[in-house]
Amino acid sequence: MGVRRAANTHDSREERRQGVPGNIERELNEERAAALLRISRTLDSLITQLHASRERIERLRGDDRGREIEAYRELRREAVRYRWYLEVQREALGLRHHHRLDEFYRIPALLDA
Fold this sequence. Notes:
Elements lengths: L1 H58 L2 H31 L8 H4 L9
């Protein structure tokens, strides 16, 4: 009886020990997925801001237009950076094909001065 109990205790400890890496991996993947969501929402917001900025630029003239174009360029740089973050985060989750991202996250083109 004592041997059987010792074996069961050992099995239970071994199962817990092996479960720890699995739990950590699961938690890491959950955090990666949450980060992916945050990044995609930020990118989506930046793209929306870029479209609004383009509309303002079309209506503006003079110095105001120049300032808005510079703000647009900065927003666009940030959107490009977040597009890259999105790709990196997807790779961290094992998603390697990114060719369709540009269909969902179209970053507006650069503007001429």
